[in-house]
C-alpha cells in the first residue's frame, strides 16, 4: 500500500489533514487531530466547538433554573451566608479543576472559554441568591423588594461596575455584602482570569515540547 493511501486524511472543519504534514498549513499532524510536538496548536473541529457550546448553554441553563426554583424567600440569612461561603469554596475548586483540564486539553483556548463561560455565571448567581434572601428577610436592606430577576440584575450591575442606581443597598449588612462582592469581582476578573490564561499558555507550551 502506498504512503499516500496509508496516510489517510483526518478532517477538521473540512480541511485535509494527513498523518504527515498538513499541506495547507505546514503543520505536522498526528492521527488524533492535534499538532505534533513542536508545532502550533491545531484548530478544533466544528463538532467539538458545537459540543462545547452545548455544554456551556446546558450548564448555564441548569444554574439559572436552580436559581429561580429555589425558595430563597423562605431561607434564613445564616443559611444563605453559609451557602455563599460554601459556594465560593466550590467556585475556587471549580476554577482549580478547570485549570487542570485546560493544561491537559489538546485545545486549551477552547477549554478556557468554556471554563469562563460556566464559572462566571456560577459566581454571579451565588451573590444574587444571597441578595434575594437578605431583601426578603429585611425589607430595609435595599431601596425596593428584590425578586429573583432583580437580584440577578443587581449582581450583574455591581459586577460590571455600571451601577445604574435604580437598586441600591441601604442597610449595613447589604452594603457589607455588596463590598464583599466588589472585592470578589476584582479577584475573579484579576486572579482567576490570569490563572486561566496562564493555564492556556502552559497547555500550549506543554504540547509544543
From TrEMBL:
Ranges for domain Potassium channel: 123-200
InterPro entries: K_chnl_dom
Keywords of this entry: Membrane, Transmembrane, Transmembrane helix
TM segment ranges: 52-70, 76-103, 115-139, 176-200
Short name of any one Pfam family annotated for the protein: Ion_trans_2
Statement: the UniProt record of this protein carries the keyword Lipid metabolism: no
Protein name per UniProt: Metal transporter
Amino acid at each position: 500500500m502506498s504512503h499516500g493511501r496509508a496516510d489517510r486524511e483526518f478532517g477538521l472543519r473540512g480541511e485535509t489533514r494527513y498523518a504527515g504534514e498538513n499541506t495547507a498549513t505546514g503543520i505536522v499532524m498526528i492521527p488524533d487531530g492535534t499538532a505534533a510536538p513542536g508545532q502550533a496548536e491545531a484548530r478544533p473541529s466544528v463538532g467539538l466547538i458545537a459540543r462545547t457550546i452545548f455544554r456551556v448553554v446546558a450548564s448555564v441553563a441548569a444554574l439559572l433554573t436552580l436559581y429561580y426554583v429555589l425558595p430563597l424567600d423562605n431561607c434564613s440569612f445564616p443559611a444563605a451566608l453559609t451557602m455563599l461561603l460554601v459556594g465560593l469554596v466550590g467556585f475556587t475548586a471549580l476554577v482549580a479543576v478547570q485549570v487542570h483540564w485546560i493544561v491537559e486539553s489538546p485545545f486549551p483556548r477552547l477549554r478556557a472559554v468554556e471554563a469562563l463561560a460556566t464559572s462566571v455565571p456560577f459566581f454571579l448567581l451565588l451573590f444574587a441568591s444571597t441578595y434575594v434572601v437578605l431583601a426578603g428577610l429585611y425589607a430595609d436592606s435595599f431601596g425596593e423588594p428584590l425578586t429573583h430577576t432583580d437580584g440577578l440584575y443587581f449582581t450583574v450591575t455591581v459586577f460590571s461596575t455600571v451601577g445604574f442606581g435604580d437598586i441600591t443597598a441601604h442597610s449595613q449588612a447589604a452594603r457589607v455584602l455588596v463590598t464583599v462582592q466588589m472585592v470578589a469581582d476584582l479577584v475573579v476578573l484579576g486572579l482567576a482570569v490570569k490563572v486561566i490564561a496562564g493555564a492556556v499558555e502552559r497547555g500550549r507550551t506543554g504540547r509544543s515540547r
